[in-house]
Design brief:
This protein is α/β, with parallel strands linked by helices. It has 13 helices and 13 strands. It has helices spanning 21-34, 53-64, 77-91, 106-117, 133-140, 160-166, 189-201, 226-229, 261-272, 280-291, 295-316, 353-364, 388-406, and strands at 40-41, 100-103, 123-128, 144-149, 171-177, 206-210, 237-242, 255-258, 322-323, 331-335, 366-367, 369-370, 379-383. The protein is globular, with a radius of gyration of 22 Å. The N and C termini lie far apart (52 Å). The protein binds 4'-deoxy-4'-aminopyridoxal-5'-phosphate (PMP). The site of 4'-deoxy-4'-aminopyridoxal-5'-phosphate has 13 residues, from helix 4.
Amino acid sequence: MKDLSGTFRPAERIASLGVSEILQIGARASARKAAGHDVITLGAGEPDFDTPDHVKQAAWDAMQAGETKYTALTGTTALKDAIARKFSRENGISYASDEIIACTGAKQVIYNAMMATLDPGDEVIIPTPYWVTYSDIVELCGGIPVLVRCEADQGFRLTADQLRRAITDKTRWLMLNSPSNPSGAAYAAPDLCPLIDVLLENPQVWLMVDDMYEHILYDDFRHVTPAALCPSIAPRTLTINGVSKAFAMTGWRLGYAGGPADLISAMAIIQSQSTSCPSSITQAAAIAALDGPQDFLADRRDSFCQRRDLVVNRLNDTPGLSCRRPEGAFYAFAECNDLLGVQTPEGGVLTTDRALCNWLLETADVAVIPGSAFGLPGYFRISYAASIETLETALTRIEQACRQLSGI
Ligand code: PMP
């Protein structure tokens, strides 16, 4: 509807935020497709598998049984019990019912936590590259994201020295994501212990751990989560997870977290005045996902691993690109600095990773996301949640385009 009054004025808190670049690129790719181009989209962070049938059946059964009303604010007892069992069985952490919250996606978990704890000027340390929502939520809640660059040569992982240097009296949180979106890098116990030691020296800093991709790990890399690794950090750790990625349930909207009861109750206050409980039907489906068979996870992981190897090998064979082999998630984060500043066959010069990604979309019909969108310019992210055939075609197109740029 056209605003005829001329009085619309967005709040200052959204002045520096925009619609996620990932969504914008997705929209441009769709527009090209609609115009008849054969575009391959490797932008979205979404498994290409379907939600398992037993999960869908549980949702149907819940609807038939009339479970279609509001539930308890932080989730049904049955769901919280299933979440507690999951944390205990898979992660070795035990949480009581008042230490668990279920939300409308892990994104809402993070939003609730930051809304409930940040005052203006409070700082949150975010290792870079990061999932862009982290910094945007911090800003939305009046906090200051403190971005710490973690390049490929350090495995995209934050070091204890970097953490120590970033902490100030104003620091409230460190956000850690393993395996990471967008780099795929994961933290093993020897990477985590020194970071936890620094946190133990700085009691004002809490730890937000995003374990969303824990089931997508390769080469026998074992997931370890800080609250289990070091029980002394558990009283100020929020351990976040969800069903979106492991169970291919992105559209169902269910994330959850375990943490100290004081923090969980504060988060519940925010949830009570924004969305109330997560969908009752989704909660029933999530119980089936968490309690049901888990063996298909290994098949899906094997299939992702095959794709990872294909994508990383092909990227490293492409002139001007290099890509670290990620430990997990379904993203490859390729360095493209050697291709920046060179002339395109059309006569333009690509000076930034954003320009390169635009050019790839326009000339090679492949949509990928620039590293700048994740706080680290000079890279781009490929989501390899696509079939081997699609990936082969996309990588051939990328290679041909990059050969044109580098004149090889
Ligand atoms: N954490 C990470 C690292 C993610 O990549 C995503 C989804 N892109 C989420 C959390 C959010 O997941 P959801 O809100 O679907 O539960």
